[in-house]
Amino acid sequence: MTAPLDVSGSAAEAHPEAVLVGAGKAIQGRSLTRIAWMRLRRDKLAMAGGITVILLILVAIFSTPIIAAFGHPPLEFHQDQIDQSTLLPKGAFGAMGGEFLLGIEPVNGRDVFSRIVAGAGISLLIGFLATILSVVIGTTLGVIAGYFGGWVDQLIGRIMDVFLAFPLLVFAIALAGVIPDKGFGLEGNSLRIAMLIFIIGFFSWPYIGRIVRGQTLSLREREFVDAARSLGARNGYILFREILPNLMAPILVYATLLIPTNILFEAGLSFLGVGINPPTPTWGGMLSEAVRFYTLPHFVIFPGLAIFITVLAFNLFGDGLRDAFDPRAH
Amino acid sequence: MLIVVSMVTFGIFFVVPQWAGATPEAMASRYVGRAATPETVHLVAERLGFNDPVVVQYGRFLKGLFTGAEYDYGAGVEQCPAPCFGYSFISGQPVWPDLVDRIPVTFALALGAAFIWVVAGVSVGVVSALRRGSFFDRVAMGTALAGVSLPIFFTGMVSLVVFSYGLGWTPPGGAWTDLSENPAQWAYNLLLPWITLAFLFAAGYARLTRAGMLETMGEDYIRTARAKGMRERDVVVKHGLRAALTPILTLFGIDFGLLIGGAVLTETTYTLPGLGQFAILAIRNQDLPQVMGVVLIAACFVVLANLIVDLLYAWVDPRVRLS
């Protein structure tokens, strides 16, 4: 599972010495994290989503050995398998079988299975890093807006409104379209990946920012913050040691729900041909090539299913996480 | 708001490339094509003012939008009338009239889909909330979860394969008829894109409506309304749904911004001749003035949509006063 949350501290822990008279054994204090984890364990759909996410991450990390064991290199052409007059694979069902698990692409005969496995890495990398970027920006600005209030809050709120009102995809397309081949010390697709992470992360932070701001507003008025302040704690201490730990749960939940959105975003950009450049395999890119060959079901369905399963798994897990931390919200 | 949008657009197309290391000459060379000599490029860079400070360039960009612009090509002065987005690199035609041609397609797609998804999403959500835990609820919520997890270009492609090429119920991709020409054909051609685009959004609305209704139907005033003998239908619609409508409206405001993006993907999948397809073609051709035009139009559209949503707030929630 993801890194264990530390929401312990002042408000979070019950005291174990509060033993009921007559109870057989000492009642154990459970932290909020522990309670949430117990609820999550009982949620079968969420657990299925979580396990799928872990499997996907493992596939992405070990893509090279997996491809070596079950497929052919993702960029390798197999033109001997292609009927040169129709440009379609010779074998039935797109040449699916033991040799090519999910068949081969028309025209150049690349291994669909290997390309999907290789594409997982890029999707997840962009999904995770873009989310981290928007969490960092969103949390920083959200906490500042919620904690300090006044004109700071108004200014940041206005910026968030502007970002939320922007035609996101159109701007991202325009930006991704003007990315040069070289720049910022990077080249080719590594530059494009970096830029995509930046663009997606930079445009989606207000979703996190709004939630963090709202939570901070209510946390600011809580007794433990007053207590810290009356003990002479500085703003920095209150923000980092008192408020931020209590924000971890909502941030984790909404970050989990933002990852699939970002993965869909990257797939959309690659589908439109302004994401990662071919021949590097991406799920969106594979679908965009499939447009011309819609008569071959496997060519459309497998990359589409890959996106669907990934996004669904994250959504299920994120929903479960939200219910576990805040059962009232359901 | 529009000023911010214009600044960002300007920034993307003029400032970012220069940060990334493009010289004024490199900027100008996009305008003159590959065959130009270095002297010509230098001259054009000078004429178009890529050597000027950014603020001056931005001022000129704004002036072009509001009062039109004059381009001095040396051989004569070219007049570009009021909303001047410049000239296409590829065809040499002014960008604005081309854009105007394509607005109705995207508008029809967006409005039709928005209507379907709001009606379908909200009614499914209400029924799901009222029959919580029923078979209908579980199927609807399962479908909704799948709906928010499916990329539109995938559902679009699958629906084309199944309904157009397989069953022959709907027209193939790329079919478009003007509304003025034949309204029935127009609606028939748009049916599949509408439903596909609406499905993606309806799912989210069903989930949100259901959650909102579950919360409001537990409130005291609902019990009061029932206790005073109000008809159940009125309790649900006038008291329950009305209170649950505000967050839905907020989401609608945000989604309308995203919808332009959704339209890009939908139009590409169904090859509809709208703004989205125009944008993609322009980007593939590296046709900067066209790209800029689409981005600005899309942004104006979003600002307008937000204004309408703000007005709707006052209608849905009487506590909001228009000032």
From TrEMBL, chain A:
GO biological process per UniProt: transmembrane transport
Keyword presence, Transmembrane: yes
Domain ABC transmembrane type-1: 120-318
Membrane-topology descriptor: Multi-pass membrane protein
Transmembrane segments: 45-70, 116-147, 159-179, 191-212, 251-276, 296-318
Localization per Swiss-Prot or TrEMBL: Cell membrane
The entry's keywords: Cell membrane, Membrane, Transmembrane, Transmembrane helix, Transport
InterPro entries in alphabetical order: BP-dependent_transpt_permease (IPR050366), MetI-like (IPR000515), MetI-like_sf (IPR035906), OppC_N (IPR025966)
Pfam families, per database record: BPD_transp_1, OppC_N
Domain of life per record: Bacteria
Family designation: Belongs to the binding-protein-dependent transport system permease family.
PANTHER family: D,D-DIPEPTIDE TRANSPORT SYSTEM PERMEASE PROTEIN DDPC-RELATED, OLIGOPEPTIDE TRANSPORT SYSTEM PERMEASE PROTEIN APPC
Protein name, UniProt field: Peptide ABC transporter permease
Species for this entry: Nonomuraea cavernae
Species lineage: Bacteria, Bacillati, Actinomycetota, Actinomycetes, Streptosporangiales
Automatic annotation (TrEMBL), chain B:
Major localization class: membrane
Spans traversing the lipid bilayer: 105-130, 142-166, 186-208, 240-265, 291-316
Record InterPro entries: BPD_transp_1_N, MetI-like, MetI-like_sf
Subcellular location field: Cell membrane
Chain ranges of the ABC transmembrane type-1 domain: 103-313
A GO-annotated cellular component: plasma membrane
Protein name: ABC transporter permease
Source species: Nonomuraea cavernae
